[in-house]
Amino acid sequence: MIGTVLFVRLGRWGIAGFSAIAFTATFVQTTAFYTLAGHSASDQAAFGASMASIATHFSVLFATPLHPETAGGYVWWRGFQAVAILLSVWAMASATAMVRTDENHGLLESVLANGVPRWVVIATRALAFAIGAGLVSAAAALGFVAAVQADGGAVEARSLIEAWLLIVALTLSCYGISLLVAQLVSARLAAAAAAIVVLALFLDNSLSRTLDLLATPRWLSPF
Q1: Which tens digit of pLDDT belongs to each residue from 159-189?
Q2: Are 135 and 15 in contact (CB under 8 A)?
Q3: In sequence order, what are the residues at sequence separation of 6 or more whose Cβ sits closer than 8 angstroms to the Cβ of residue 199?
Q4: Which of 73, 108, 125, 155 would be a feasible disulfide site paired with 102, CB 3.0-4.6 Å?
Q5: Alpha-carbon gap, residue 176 to 95, rounded angstroms
Q6: Global pTM?
Q7: By the 8 A CB rule, do 69 and 44 touch?
C-alpha cells in the first residue's frame, strides 16, 4: 500500500495535467453542443443529423456517434473518445518508461535484492497507474457534468458511470499490453515496439468499420 501511494505521488503532476486536459475537453465540447445545437428538440435533431453525416468522414479515428442529437452522444463522440485516445498514449508511455527507468537507474535490481518479488513491484506500479487513470477519467466526467448543469440540464448517472468505466478499461488494457511488450524487448526498443502494437490494435478496430476483412480480428482490439 505504501509503495502504491509513493508511485501515485511520483506521478501526481502527470495525473494533474491530464486531468486538467480531460476536464477541459469535455467541458468545452459540452458547452459547444448547447451553443451549436440549441435547446429545442427540432434544432438538436437537425444538428444531430448533420453531425452523423460529418462523422462518416472521421470513422478511422472515431466511432460513429450514437444519438449525436443529445449532449451525451455528441460529447462521447467529440470529447470522451478523444480523452480515451489520449489516455491510451499516456498508458503506453507510462508502461514503457517504467521499464526504461528501472533499467537505467537499477531500481528493479535494487528492490529485488531486498527480497521483494518482481510481480509485487509490477503490480504495485500498475495499481498506482490504475488509480491515476481513474482520477483522470473522473475529471473528464466532471467536465461533462459541470457544463450540463451550467446549462440547466440533467445528467444520467448510469450512462456517465459506464463512460467512465469504458475509458478506464481501455486505458488499463493499453497499459497492460504495453507492459507485456516491454518485457519481451530491450528497454531501448520498448517504447517503439509498444507504440507499433497499440497503433496496430487501434487501426484494427477503426479500419474494420470500412473493411470487412477486419471484422473478425477486430475483437482482438481493446479500442
Answers
A1: 899 999 999 999 999 999 998 888 888 777 8
A2: yes
A3: none
A4: 108
A5: 8
A6: 0.83
A7: yes
